[in-house]
Amino acid sequence: MWEGQTVALAGAAASGRRAAAWVRALPAPPLPAPVGDWLAGALPAAVETAMSGLDPQECDHMAPAGRVVDGTGGVDAGTISILAAVPVVLAEAGWLAPDQQARLLAVTSAVTGVVRLIAQDPGTAILHGLLTRLCAVLDHAAHPEGVAWAPAGTDGSGVAQKFEHRF
Predict the structure, then answer these.
(1) Looking at beta carbons, which pairs linking 89-95 to residues 24 or more positions away fall under 8 Å?
(2) 101, 36 contact by CB (below 8 A)
């Protein structure tokens, strides 16, 4: 366990919950459509699941026989598949403004980036603030009114101790 891990993972889960709430609050299509249901249900659930399920113990490693095993960062392939579908699905979400579509791309890109960071090098992601920075990107993308974000409570190690949001 790395210094600041518990706080960093709790902050990531909170960012995921905020981003999922923003996705759920997007306007519904003018007529019922499968993509509208997906955007209101499966996608925000995947964002929240990924960000709350991060597990640094599920990182890349060597199997006993010397075979490289790709880590999952604690997030299953089904969740990643939902996040990866966003660029294709957005073409069918014509009722959303381009800004909303760009923010959805940024949200899912930040979430998949966080998962890869934790899977590939959790120590660096946590100790050097990379996880915290991607959570700031996630928060910014999910707050179109322009969230002011700043890490607060650092103890001099460069590890953010809590998130501070000002709206």
Answers:
(1) 89/35, 89/38, 89/39, 92/33, 92/35, 93/29, 93/35, 93/36, 93/39, 95/27, 95/28, 95/29, 95/30, 95/36
(2) no
> Rounded to an integer, what distance in angstroms lies between the CA atom of residue 41 and that of residue 36?
9
Contact 22, 143 (CB under 8 A): yes
Say if CB 64 and CB 21 are below 8 A apart: no
Query: What is the Cα–Cα distance from 14 to 36, expressed in whole angstroms?
Result: 24
Residues 6+ apart with CB under 8 A from 56: 1, 2, 5, 9, 73, 74, 118, 122, 123, 125, 126
pTM for this one? Answer: 0.84
Q: What is the pLDDT of residue 149?
A: 43
Strand partners, 69: 61
